[in-house]
Amino acid sequence: MTTESHVHHPNYVKVWAALVVLLILSVLGSMSSIRAAVLIAAFGVALVKAYLVARNFMHVGVEKKWIPYLLVVCLAFVAILFAGVAPDVMNHSGLHWENNAAKHAVESGTQSAPPKHE
Amino acid sequence: MSTASKPISNTRSASGIPSARLITWWVIASEILIFGGLIASYVMHRIGHPEWRAAAEHTNTYAGAFNTFVLLTSSLFAVLAFKAADSQNGPRAAKLLRLTSLGGFLFLIIKGFEWTHDIHEGFVLSSGGFWSYYYTVAGLHGLHVLAGAIIMLFVAADAAKNQELQRVECVGLYWHFVDIIWIFLFPLLYIAK
Amino acid sequence: MNTQVLHAEPGFFRKYCWSTDHKVIAMQYMFTGLIMALIGGYLAYVFRMQLGFPNQSVPGFGIVTPGRYNAVVTMHGSIMIFWVAMPLLIAAFGNFLIPLMIGCDDMAFPRINRLSYQIFLLSIVVLIASFFVKGGAFGGAWTAYPPLSASGAYNLTPEGATMWLLAVALEFVAFLLGGINFTVTTMNGRAPGMKMFDIPIVVWMIVLASIIFMASVGPLIAGAIMLLFDQTMATGFYDPTRGGDPLLWQHLFWFFGHPEVYVVLLPAMGIVAEIITVFARKKLFGYKTILYTAWSTGVLSFVVWAHHQFVAGIDPRMANIFTVTTLLISIPIAEMVFLYIATLYGGSIRLHTPMLWALAFIAEFMIGGVTGIFLGASGTDIYLHDTYFVIAHFHYTFVPIAIIAMFAGLTFWYPKMFGRMLNETLGKIHFWGTVISFNVIFIPLFMTGVAGDQRRVYSYAQFAEQMRPALQHLRTISTVALLVMLAFQVVFVINFFWSMRHGKRAEDNPWLSNTLEWTVSSPPPHGNFAELPTVYRGPYEYGLPGRALDYWPQDAPN
What we know:
The complex is a heterotrimer of chains A (118), B (193) and C (558).
Chain A: H1 12-30, H2 35-57, H3 66-89, E1 93-94, E2 97-98, H4 100-108
Antiparallel strand pairs in A: 1-2
Helix pairs in contact in A: 1-2
Chain B: H1 8-11, H2 19-48, H3 53-56, H4 61-86, H5 90-120, H6 129-160, H7 166-191
Helix pairs in contact in B: 2-6, 2-7, 4-5, 4-7, 5-6, 6-7
Chain C: H1 12-17, H2 22-52, H3 66-102, H4 110-129, H5 152-155, H6 158-188, H7 201-232, H8 246-280, H9 287-300, H10 316-344, H11 353-376, H12 378-384, H13 388-418, H14 424-450, H15 464-467, H16 472-502
């Protein structure tokens, strides 16, 4: 149907190689004992990998502008969800309230299994 | 190439993007919200419950890493399939799509082994907050992998006959999206314990 | 492309049950939605009889026990929103109108369209089946808050609870598929010459609604999976003793629940816009402004949700933020109402039945909107939450949306759908009977609500401080008014079916409207347009000075 390709095809194998290298880096980084290094390695690498896949495999860069905007807006809605819910769910106390069950779970350091009566 | 049975609304393109690709992008947009909601819920709980670390230690980082490699490689095959379809080479596109699909099934098989081991250790869906989220989000992702791997085979069957080649790109887009979700799940569930 | 020549005439099954034609699918959604409205109305009858005549056996139902009361109100709310408002306003009108109004032959993906109805029908089968399982239909309120909804020991309807959840999930999938199809069709399938701002407002609104739905339902789908596991797999996603949080469900639910009300409001406003322009013979005042306000309402609707949770235990600082955003969102909607009034101002108004419904929408919805202000401000909401004031408020928004605007659209497009005119006299009797009785149902409930009547309580007999016999006459008046309103629907049913056979035959364009659906026969043929149209102008060129006719169809070259 389409005679002209709507994209330019980069060297996909090179991109794949970069992705694999990044994967190895993130696994190596996970073995570090510095927590900050582990997190940066893990999520920093993930962001770069996602960008590489989106740009090179999904050709988001040459797509109509509003497509990446749409995807960013969806991510923004997820961020809004997080911002509106985390103060109640991630925190275990706030202005005039406490989540005693959660605090107890954190202090006792265990997760509980399902109750026996079911 | 069967345009005769497609309605005008499908073959027209006032937006400039062919309908098949356009609908794929909208599907991806809606899936961002579904996975985003689930992952955001997990992150809130994980940060609020540092004691979940003890449970999270038990995920198999190497199985997760290898599965990441499998998905990345299958994504490579998917985009090479698109390149072939773009050059009107249907049979080659079909072959590459089938390899992609194989990668998807391999991912699921490895996960099967991984989860069987976890279940034998006593970690099931109801074993506590971490495991509930772990199985739910990885399971939902796995269902998407399965669906994609199957749909891909149907697209490949048409592509082998040089039919509906535009679908190769579309199923590839979906597959890359599923790959990107895993790109974030891997550090979340296997590294940032 | 003339499609009639090549195909053999399909049999009954292919034509009515297995069709991919958007008009047939529209009718499937429409009839299904109307039948569900009867069921929803029956359920309202049951619980209002209990409230108006407490603890007496209800004719056609029996004694309303506490458990059955809970199930009846749960199912009434769920059915009216998910299986009446959405299928009628979005799926039925969207399916019927979009390809016709943008000048193409069908939806971009007709088989996906058919699939979406089939999934929708499956959701109804699951929902109806839930009435007949052990324990009966789900009784945890349409908002399904855990732990009530997660634990069968609490809600007493464990099987019904899971089936309800599955039915809702299936309905979501159906509308996701359908909505994405509408969006792609509108983006791509437009006739040559129809630019973005030449698209009729109702099409814009249905597409916007589909996008808002798609963006808001995702997290709830995630939440529903978690609730399903809590119900059936002994997980503790919403159990604080097991590391979960019931507030999480509330947030996920209302993150969807609030945009959802705009998902149903926007198509209703779109329908009203089409009608008031035709029956005032006047251009839509501020087309672009209406669009921009609709877009901003859509975006704003994502940041107001926790006003449903002011007394649920959310952090009070979040409550402050949500109060501000909630009060802000009243501005764009008010603006749209002003623009509609400006459209009517100076127009040559013809009071046919569709116009009566459209005008009633504007008036009644304003009452709903204004009463929402008291609920959006957290201070007053502390008192009013869970009282009948809330019920009256949302019925003054939902009934205009799902009933009034729906009848407006139905009476307006009936000639195009069925090729016959509805009877005007019966139409007007139905209109006045419905609208007057609607107000008599809910104004007393504003009063009892402010006086403190609590919702979701099957009987105040056990609660002396709630009982307040002095208020009982208000509760009874409300019930009697509902009986009257239900009785008047018989007039509509008679008009609807009688006119289908014996109504005056409709011409192509009985209302002298500009939009493209009125350029084809009533009803339109398979394939819609023998010759696909080209568009030369916007849809609202009415009453232009200097022209012989007071309308100017979009596809007329000069």
